Amino acid sequence: MDQKLFDLLYAAVVNRESTYEGVYYTGVKTTKIVCRPTCRAKTPKAMNVTFYSTLEDALQAGFRPCKRCKPEANGALGPDAALAAQVDTIIETQYKDKLTLSQLAALLAISPYHLQRTYKRVRGYSPAEKTELVRLKHAQRFLLESNATIAEIGEAVGYGSPSHFAAWFSNRTGISPTAYRNGQGGGDESDE
Ligand SMILES: [Zn+2]
After folding, report:
1. CA of residue 169 to ligand 1 center, whole Å
2. Position 43 confidence tier, pLDDT thresholds 50, 70, 90
3. Where are the domains of the chain?
4. What is the CATH T-level fold of the domain 133-181, as seen in this structure?
5. Cα 69 to averaged position of ligand 1 atoms, centre (Å)
6. Which of these, 46, 49, 45, lies nearest to 32 by C-alpha position?
7. Least enclosed by CB within 10 Å: which of 27, 37, 125, 158?
8. What residues are neighbours of ligand 1 (ion), with CB under 5 Å?
9. Measured between alpha carbons, how far is 92 from 134 in angstroms, rounded to an integer?
């Protein structure tokens, strides 16, 4: 399993977040028990954890279902909604990395086609559009709340070139990054 994905999943286990309910199962090697990611039992050490994308895989590997969190009972999220939530989490944490659909799919160990179709059905837009929305949200926040230059902000949201960032931002919002920073309209437009 990819280390970034493992870290995301393990953080969810530590915080008992429901993001991966029904998507991944936590196998604890020391006890041979398999849990939901939200299990209230003592958090296992990362080195003792193996994640499985299906309960069946965990059971086949010799794990027994936890009596406390009962991973065999139905979770709150359906598998499609759980997948979409998982995609959102990855995009929110890696929006500047220009993850392609194939890279996202590889992180989730599913096909790009299945990812695109399922995500769009649940959310109404594609993972690529979600990435744009997240980048725009962060760009707007940085413009208003930081003193970073336009070039630095562009780079922070995944645009190496300031002119590319400015063109993209203007295209999405109808206003240049500088004008946005200066109060949405009044400022001069010479942001190059
Ligand atoms: Zn448990």
Report:
1. 46
2. very high
3. 3-65, 79-129, 133-181
4. Arc Repressor Mutant, subunit A (1.10.10)
5. 4
6. 49
7. 125
8. 35, 39, 41, 66, 68-69
9. 7
